[in-house]
Every structure is written in structure tokens, then in C-alpha cells.
Amino acid sequence: MPSPPPVNSDFGKATRFTRFTAIDWSGAQGHRHKGIAVATCGVGDAAPILVSPPDSAAWSRADVLEWLLDQRGSAMLIGLDLSPAFPFVDQGGYFPGWQQSPGDARALWDVVDSLSASDPHLAVDSVLRDPDIRRHFRQHRDCGDLFAGGAGRMRVCELGQRAMGFAPTSCFNLVGAAQVGKSSLTGMRVLHRLAGRIPVWPFDPLPDHGPAIVEIYTTIAARAAGIRKGLSKMRDATALDTALAGLGSDPHTPLPRYDDHATDAILTAAWLRANADRADLWAPAGMTRDIARTEGWTFGVS
Questions:
Q1: Adjacent-strand bridge partners of 142
Q2: pLDDT of 204-216, one tens digit each?
Q3: What CA–CA distance (Å, rounded) separates 9 from 201?
Q4: pTM of this prediction?
Q5: pLDDT reported for residue 108
Q6: Strand runs (DSSP E) across the chain, as ranges?
Q7: Which value, to the nearest 10 degrees, does the dihedral of the CA atoms of residues 279, 283, 284, 287 take?
């Protein structure tokens, strides 16, 4: 049977954004996280600036949720550096063999948030202890019997990232510095709480007004800026300005401290601004309606 046609986005709605924000996310334990960074910019060439967290030196996940809700009147395109869903297409479900496995991404977000209701700071410890769900994850000293092995299961858009020369990590692998599963799970709690208030593409169509959220992969921005494979981290002012120039952006305002999180957020906000009007990125050839409903898509994978 032939595959269904790709989803056709209303590209005209993508050209109305006047602000562009990238959020480097964290799934780490605890309340506040130096691994969270928020950078934003307007139209034009001025470099993105970091948004200061409220009342603290570091953001909490709840802070970011409240900040996002405050943007509901802004024509802002918001990139979240996390996977909004797990692989589904490869095995016909997120958690094959579990009778209660959710049927789409919004149901998945509901399950994650509900199971984690007693976990503070939008953490997801309870999800990963669930006897049915934990079987699918590779955790430290606990590899589930249904973990696929090797690199783990991949979403269709992650296979697309591989085809572009990148090395995505399976959300079911929670071991190692490159793991993204905990970030993704904590992000799903936030996305569930934004339901009906801020659209998340491609699960929702682009709105006529107000903000929209997309999934970002900061390495895509780094490559587009001319940073070679293996050298994607910018830890000083010169490296950041060189990368920003590669995206047509002016030099940034000096930062008090340079780390991967701040520089990734700044560069990716500039990349979003430079690429938000690319029609091909809003209608990826490999994204069917079923994929858009269950797995989502990384903005930047065409």
C-alpha cells in the first residue's frame, strides 16, 4: 500500500512571526538547572539575547512553563530542544505489548504527566519506575527487556537526521552524556500543560496569531552556521560570533559566562529567525499525517 501524502502546512502563517526563541532544556534532577537557557531575538540582524530567569540565577522547568504562558500574545516562534514524542511508526506503538499504550502524542503527554503527578519540579521518576513502561528503557543499571538494543528505536524524523549526517540518540536510551530521554519526558509534562493554550507543531496546525512551538535540534543550527562536525560547542565569545555571522547575525552582547547551553540557545534562536520562512521545512516530504500525530517532527529536517 502506498504511503499517505505528506502533510501540507499553511506556509503563509509561518511568515508572520516577529520574534524567535530557542530553549535549551534539561531533564536533570532538582529544582533549578544551569542546563536550561532561553534566548530570543526579533526580526532583523541583531543577535539574540539571553532571557534572565525570574528571581534566581537559574531557570526551573516551572519557570519556563510560566514564561511560555506569558508569551501567548506574541507572534513568537519557540523552539524547544527536546523530543516531544517517542518512536511509534517502527513498531506501531510507543510501548508495544502494553494494553494501555497511548495512541498519539497528546495521549502520551497525558500519561506522562498523570503518572508523574507526585514528582516535584516536573520530574518523571514515577514514569520510569512504572513496571510496564520501564521495560522499554535503558537506564543506569536497569536495561528493560523490551529495549531494542544498539542505538535504540528511532522516530522517522530522527532517521532523517541520520540521513543528514547527524547522530541522534534514541529517547529510550537514558544512559550517557548524550541521552535525551529524560529531557524529552520532562518536556512532555510541560507540553501537556500547554495544551489548548500554545499550539505545538506539527501536532497542531500553525495558528493565525500568537505563538507556536516547534522541536529544534541545536546541532542543525551549528552545522548551518559552518561549525564542523565534532566542533559543535561554542565556549567563548569569538566562536559564538563567528557562528552567528554564518547565519547573518550581528555579534552578540558579551555574556558573563560562556557554556554550551547559553551559546546553543543564542545560535539556535538566530537559526530559527533565518529559516522560519522556508516553505520546505513546514512541509517535510517524509512527514505523513500519522507521523505528525504520533511522532512529530524536528523543524529543520526537510
A1: 139
A2: 999 999 999 999 9
A3: 10
A4: 0.94
A5: 98
A6: 19-24, 32-33, 37-42, 49-50, 59-60, 76-80, 138-139, 142-143, 212-215
A7: 170
